[in-house]
Amino acid sequence: MKNRLNIIIGIIIGIAFLGLWFILVDINEILSYLGRLNIFHLILFTFFYILAYFIRSYRWRLILKPIFTMKILESFFYFMAGMLINYIIPVRAGEVAKSFFLKKNEGVKISKSLPSIFIDKLTDLFPIIVIIILIPILSIPVGRTLTWIIVAILALYVIFLFILIFSMKSPENMHKILMKLSFFLPNKFKLKLEEFFVSFIDGMGILKGRVKDTILIYVLTIIAVLSEGFFVYMIFKSLGLQDVGFIKILFGYTLMNLTYILPTPPAQIGSNEFMWVVIFSFALGVNNNLTGAAVATVHILTTIVIFVIGAISLSSIGIKLSEVLKSNN
């Protein structure tokens, strides 16, 4: 029931965003741009999108290694199955779902694997630092909307980073804080939660002393961002983009990608379209309709990739979608 309510609310929000997008663009102009697309080129460009997520899945595998070692393809299946859940349920449920998969298939406690997912998401937020550095270099005008987006993501990054560092430096105090935040729960739940917190906080030190692995994790993050940025840039170029270079498109898409850390409507319908126009058109000066055509193309391609590979991934790890939805109720 809870999942259905979340999905219904998400759809309503998505429709509202989609309505705003239709106000900002001309559909006939968008269709004119779309007529320039070459199917073969689209398939070729999409390889770089898939590569970006393969790299991210390898990064997660690397983070998780001290707790559980997976085969490379296996980690990709777990990762993409989680992506599919994220796409369907608008509360980032796919992140927790990956821990659920590991518990069901491999017997790894959720409290043990969840810190690796937390750190993985923290690493995904790292490019916000690159974004802030690029603003003065690219002379990008930062309006009120863009400022709020950057501030919100940066604040989230700082909060996550603080939780990670504090958990590693002072696990006892972190445990006390988490227990105080659960004051409203009945005692029988607190006892179970206390055991979970102890295991979770202990797991936050998963990268402690692993300097080479940590460096590699951030290098992989940058490579994934570049691969995905190239995918988006080539879509824009194939639609006729001429006066904006790769670095600006990389900036825009990286910022757009960072907003995915927040809850979105199912399949990101509406929010994707609206935010692309805000970032690429209002902030970076790309034609509204060209941006509209680009987001429509990218959204369709990525949705197909996530649903097809996500479904194959769920099947490969022996999980039914109904099981995941039931576990999130």
Describe the structure.
With 329 residues, the protein is mainly alpha-helical. The chain has one domain. Helices cover 79% and strands 0% of the residues. It contains 15 helices and no strands. The longest helix is centred in the last third of the chain and has 29 residues, at 288-316. The protein starts with a helix and ends with a helix. The model has no long low-confidence stretch (mean pLDDT 83).
Order of helices and strands: HHHHHHHHHHHHHHH
3D shape:
globular
Instruction: Determine the mean pLDDT.
Output: 83
Beta fraction of the residues? under 5%
- The multimeric state of the shown protein is single chain
Structural class: mainly alpha
Characterize the biggest β-sheet.
none
